[in-house]
Write a structure and sequence with these properties.
Pyridoxal 5'-phosphate (PLP)-binding protein, which is involved in PLP homeostasis. The protein contains nine helices and eight strands. The protein is α/β, with parallel strands linked by helices. It has a single domain (3-224), classed as TIM Barrel (Alpha-Beta Barrel). Helix 6 (140-152) links the parallel strand 5 and strand 6 (156-163).
Length: 233
């Protein structure tokens, strides 16, 4: 078994165990393999193991892989990095999901630039649940307004919320933020029926995120190894 396959199987086992410990079916949590900076060959190797959803942070890096792997017709590409307004068109044209929508302008441009021949672009609104000044995302109090806009735009489908909680070793502090995120999600999902995704949790807090209701875990290093840094994005 290759290191890549071993890593992937270990992550799946962690996910399944966390679901079992919280009385949740394993299929209630999607694994998003964060393939940023990694070559297309590694993505295809993980695809061959059964993985279908892949996350990209860097636009050019992601576009290179989308092109190289265009023969994999059921692969699902999620854009999970910060998105500048002058780079929305290729995301709207080539990705199936955008998880980092945090302002009206980005949402409007994605809707305008989504080709009519494609299904609606799946959108997660990014929430700055820890209220850190340097962090992207709307504050919880602003989430409803942005969700309303996304739900009304013709070529977008509001699927849920995403967050990156505070980087802290204080588990109770982290749990408080994840539970607040779950409560916000439940409140909004009651109003927006297409919402079915709460994306929170990475390698270090996978188990806690699942205990707090996450339905998508974003894992990069624990599958692909330490990241490389693309020269130009």
């Amino acid at each position: 078994m290759s290191t890549l396959e071993l890593n992937y199987q270990n992550v799946l086992q962690r996910l399944q165990l966390a679901c079992s410990q919280n009385n949740r079916p394993a299929q209630s949590v999607r694994l998003l393999a964060v393939s940023k900076t990694k070559p297309a060959a590694m993505v295809e190797a993980v695809y061959a193991l059964g993985q279908r959803s892949f996350g990209e942070n860097y636009l050019q890096d992601g576009m290179d892989k989308i092109t190289a792997l265009s023969h994999l017709t059921d692969i699902e590409w999620h854009f999970i990095g910060p998105l500048q307004s002058n780079k929305t068109r290729p995301v709207a044209e080539h990705f199936q999901w955008v998880e980092t929508v945090d302002r009206d302008k980005i949402a409007r441009r994605l809707s305008e630039q989504r080709p009519a021949t494609l299904p609606a672009l799946n959108v997660l609104v990014q929430v700055n649940i820890s209220a850190e000044e340097q962090k992207a995302g709307v504050l919880p109090a602003q989430a409803h307004a942005l969700c309303t806009l996304v739900s009304e735009l013709p070529n977008l489908c509001l699927r849920g919320l995403m967050c990156i909680p505070e980087a802290t070793d204080n588990e109770e502090r982290l749990r408080t933020q994840l539970e607040a995120m779950q409560a916000l999600y439940q409140q909004l999902a009651a109003e927006f029926p297409a919402m079915d995704t709460l994306s929170m949790g990475m390698s270090g807090d996978l188990e806690l995120a699942i205990a707090c209701g996450s339905s998508e875990i974003r894992i990069g290093t624990d599958i692909f190894g330490a990241r490389d840094y693309p020269a130009n994005n």
